[in-house]
Amino acid sequence: MTGYILRRLLMTVPVMAVVALFVFSLLYVAPGDPAAIIAGEQATPAEMQRIRASLGLDQPFVPRFARWAWNAVQGDLGVSVFSATPVSEMIVQRIPPTLSLMVLTLLISIVVAVPVGVVAAANQGGWIDRLFMSAAVLGFSLPVFVVGYLLAYLFALQLGWLPVQGYRPPSGGVWEYLSRLILPALALSGGYIALIARIARSAMLEVLSQDYIRTARAKGVARQVILFVHALRNATLPIVSIIGIGVATLISGAVVTETVFGIPGLGRLVVDALLRRDYPVIQGVVLVFSFTYVLVNLAIDLAYTLLDPRIRY
Amino acid sequence: MAALLEVENLRTHFATRNGVVRAVDGLSFHVDAGETVAIVGESGCGKSVTSLSILRLVDQPPARIAGQIRFGGRNLAALGEAEMRDLRGNEIGMIFQEPMTSLNPLLTIGRQIAEPVMLHQGLDRVAARARALEMLTLVGIPAPERRLDDYPHQLSGGMRQRAMIAMALACNPKILVADEPTTALDVTIQAQIIDLMRDLQRRTGSAIILITHDLGVVAEMAARVVVMYAGRKVEEADVATIFTDPRHPYTRGLLGAVPRPGSRGTNTRLAEIPGSVPSLIKPLVGCAFAGRCPKAGDICRRAAPAWREVGPGHGAACHFAAGAA
């Protein structure tokens, strides 16, 4: 087991290297010159040349990438072109809001989606099933920003129950902290709930047709216990897998949500950086996102061993 | 003495897209306390549906169960679901054909055996676990203390079927319904499981309804035999009579299809029953077996044969049942 974890962690190295190379190349070929943006419109060519040289932009691709990658491995993601602060510092500052948003979204999604999937499967073809699955299609198709603005309009502007936007750290009081996260998390969970609920439903249907479910019924086990103990346990593997895969959607969703609700998280950071062509920041944030995704999926593979005694690494 | 279980005119029909499938169509038989009754027939004759109908484990709809299943003064066909649950695994236990897939892969053996005990006898976790251990010992699983915390995939097929039997008998049921309990097992394991079931029956005194197509198993275990064909009973007799004096051509066909050491030359072909089971959707005119029967006459195609008593406890649904074998 420990060997497996170490091997898997080791395997993240080439994955991350490929991601790094990809991100770096993409920005290398992207149009736009950070030097021109920094120097401003009145800059002379000589000035721009000086700025380029100071940023290392005049160097060829390979040495530039090598230097950046070598520093990144040591935790130094460079300095923001725009604000001159170290990128790693900026990222660390922005993690708490994004992490809070994602964790809350994850909680809401699982708590809602799993029972919805189970109940839909238990009433396959019935009106509850059809209602839930229609709602799921809606959840898929509505973009996060539409749901976000609707929620903000209704609950913040019209009803005044919750703040419109912003973020407060938990140190400033639990309600201050949570109240600003509820609407964005709800907006972000829509698609995620739909995804998990659909997978939960089909996994449950598959499990409910198994012989051991009939055995449980032959023992006189009540229907709810069969559903939530005997069947759901066996349906957890596909559900957990989709939760992991969905983290990717969650990350891209967080970028949009943070913009809609004015949350100073990683999503906002990367959007601002993109607009300013702040290369070091973009590269840093994308690396962090990729690394998170790889780690989450490693955690999920490890969770399998806890959920299914037949899986051993 | 009144029978322990009395099935009368049981009809289990399934509504399908293509019409109503009459899987069981007017079946009657009874089981006395402590007795083993075998229900035999080929695939699709309705024997498994019969066993599932007794415990009401077929989904309604699409199925519809009609008729009487009298057990302990109640008609199971009309019992409420909650009362039915109290019976299942408690007074009537059931084991299935596939020990590989019939156990929940994510629950320990001990927990699966303890579950009905906790449910029906109100034992707490510790007492139920002790009972599970007792049951595992009873069904002859080696190192039962260790097996309690094992998962099904850690057990061999024969061991899993033993665990299934332990689970079905954990609440001392009055009847054990065994649906093809040995079919999925190796021949040597089959013999062990049959020995085990006979031994347990002697000790616990529970009756057994044995669903099988294996006449060898019937000869080993059953006291009485019900032969089913196309959802109906075609012959019933005690086990010796079935083997020595079968009256229905279908029963004779089944017996003829069994290889017997020494009784024939090694190169002779086994007699087979030509054709296959008729569709259970189209209404049957005449005898269901007429199309495959070597003896069939005009009357067989015209009129369904009535049940004829041909001896004490021996009857057959054949126009020619009275004739010599």
Sequence-ordered SSE layout with sheet pairings:
The complex is a heterodimer of chains A (313) and B (325).
Chain A: H1 2-29, H2 34-39, H3 45-55, H4 61-73, H5 87-122, H6 127-141, H7 144-158, H8 174-208, H9 211-218, H10 223-260, H11 266-276, H12 279-307
Helix pairs in contact in A: 1-12, 5-6, 5-8, 5-10, 5-12, 6-8, 7-8, 7-10, 8-10, 9-10, 10-11, 10-12, 11-12
Chain B: E1 5-16, E2 19-31, E3 36-40, H1 47-54, E4 63-71, E5 74-75, H2 81-87, E6 92-95, H3 109-121, H4 125-138, H5 144-147, H6 157-169, E7 175-179, H7 187-204, E8 207-212, H8 215-221, E9 224-229, E10 232-238, H9 239-244, H10 249-256, H11 298-302, E11 308-311, E12 314-316
Parallel strand pairs in B: 3-8, 3-9, 6-7, 7-8
Antiparallel strand pairs in B: 1-2, 1-4, 4-5, 9-10, 10-12, 11-12
Helix pairs in contact in B: 3-4, 3-6, 4-6, 6-7
Straight-line N-to-C gap of chain B? 32 Å
Strand content of chain B is: 15-25%
N-to-C series of helices and strands of chain A? HHHHHHHHHHHH
Tally of structural domains of chain A: 2
The most extensive interface, with participating residues per chain, is: A-B, 19 and 28 residues
Rounded average pLDDT of chain A: 86
What's the number of helices of chain A?
Answer: 12
Helical amount among residues of chain B, as a percent range?
Answer: 25-40%
Shape of chain A: globular
Enumerate the spans of chain A where pLDDT stays under 50 for 5 or more consecutive residues: none
What is the chain-wise order of helices and strands of chain B? EEEHEEHEHHHHEHEHEEHHHEE
CA radius of gyration of chain B is 21 Å
Q: What top-tier CATH class of the largest domain in chain A fits best?
A: Mainly Alpha
Q: What proportion of the residues of chain A is helical, as a percent range?
A: over 70%
Contiguous low-pLDDT stretches of chain B (5 residues minimum) are: none
CATH superfamily of the largest domain in chain A: MetI-like
Task: Report on the architecture of this protein.
The complex is a heterodimer of chains A (313) and B (325). By secondary structure, chain A is an all-alpha fold. Chain A is 78% helix and 0% strand. Chain A has twelve helices and no strands. Chain A is globular, with a radius of gyration of 24 Å. Chain A starts with a helix and ends in a 6-residue tail after the last helix. In chain A, 35% of the residues are buried. By secondary structure, chain B is an alpha/beta fold. In chain B, helix 3 packs parallel to helix 6 (157-169). The longest helix of chain B has 18 residues, at 187-204. Chain A binds chain B through residues 210-212, 214-222, 230, 233-234, 307-310, and chain B through 55, 57, 85-90, 93-94, 96, 98, 101-107, 115-116, 119-120, 151, 153, 164, 167-168.
